[in-house]
Model the fold of this input.
Amino acid sequence: MKILKTLSVLLTVVMALSSCSKAADTSESIAQTTANSTETTENSAQTTTATAAEYNYTQELNVIDDKYRTFYEVFVYSYADSDGDGIGDLNGLAAKLDYIQEMGFNGIWLMPINPSTTYHKYDVIDYMDIDKEYGTLEDFQNLLNECHKRDIRLIMDFVVNHTSTRHEWFKQAVSALENGEDSPYIDYYNFSQNKSEIDQPYKAGNSDWYYEGKFWSEMPDLNLENESLRADLEEIMAFWLDMGVDGFRIDAAKEFYSGNPEKNIEVLKWLSDFVHGYKEDSYVVAEVWEGFTAMSKYYESGVDSLFNFAFSQETGVIAKTLGFSKSKNAAREFGAAMETVDTKLSSISENAIDAPFFTNHDTARASGFFNRDSDKIKMAGALNLFMSGNVFVYYGEEIGMSGSGRDENKRAPYVWSSSGSDFDTVGPADMETVTHSFDGAAEQLDDELSILNFYKQVIRIRNENPEIARGTVENLEIGDAASICAVKKTYGESEIFLVYNISDEEATVNPAGTELAGKAIRGYVSAQGGEVTLVSDELVLPPYSVVVLK
Ligand code: CA
Done:
């Protein structure tokens, strides 16, 4: 019995992956780990009793090759290991691209991969090489090629607020100061002999100078006004763009000149103009960890996107909508908030593309926000992924991984299977024990009501309907304001409608006399697997569901 169950799980997993053109690596690893996980498989088979309603709304994929994509944020260290040292690497990631493609993601943001002293690698020693833990430049070229074969664009973290103290520029600058000599690299950083002039000052070697280290003593801040530095950074960006990189994620843009948005915007404009000028369709997204109004001002720089922190994390709009808000009109306010984002951003820059996300490597994971309530975890994914713009999903959110407290815990090894496998990574050294409440990817692939399959269906619908990512949002005041959010998205001549039931009870909406009248179902997701039905004047939405009408 045990063997039969395992075999059937294994077969289903292999079949689920057989549509991939080059699924061999992925299916092999997942099937292999499934075979080793009889106990877990037994458990999940016993607890998985519910099934989803029959679904008759699959449309043709309609993916437009532009900047409105669905990105997956990958922390290479904790993702997939190819050589058995327990540290994720570029070849490990390359072997998982079929999985990423099968999920529907068509963009990847790689956290830093340059040589560094830390596990997270946000202190760069050499901007034109790959950290040895992760592989080589050849491995990176291969990863890029494999991404592009699958129409996945790859952007890399570009950390230019600061370098490592071990970067050659900094070493030469400090050495010159110690010896009372001149060096062009002294002006690459913010040095002063007057300690009080420096934000977060640290002593520069044995000299009587101090340098700025906003984040950490080993991360000296760069002086981004220096023209020689800018020329060097342009050369670095050109190096990666020439290799085929599709753009950059700019780290810590708010801290280029802390407390001086005007100067930060000027730096961001220079970066963004250079990248777009060098390679026209490349994509730049910047991190400005601020409230919506302060963040949106940075669109004046002409950057493609800024992360929409206002909707993210435990305190953001998505989490509030799902139960942290005391408002009686929570669902309708979510629609209004999406309309506000759209209106505000397009008023600042006609090329602005919102970059919604729910969690990232600096935030706690969704599982903890919602006390491991899978319905809310799923719905948070839907609220994020049905937003207009270029949406980001942090690796592991699609399987409801846990992770909160210290940063290392938020960057735990991806759970490829509940039993662990050769492909598992060990995670950062200072990570505490992170206990996951949900199965690994292999088991979830086989469970039609899993968080993973819910995410997959949401992304599928996003990839079937280009209006979802690109449409102009209009909030419609239809249905119960506490539980029903209804929005229209207009993209060119095409209009599409999304109706969300943001509650744990079935809800009914009467389309008669509204803009929803006469529309048909294009697709839906529902957290518990219930069916969305539409009969003339009655649209029935199961608990935590979203339907797309056209
Ligand atoms: Ca490795």
Observations:
- The radius of gyration is 24 Å.
- Residues 1-48 have pLDDT under 50 and may be disordered.
- Residues 81-83, 85, 87, 89 surround calcium ion (CB under 6 Å).
- DSSP finds 17 helices and 18 strands in the chain.
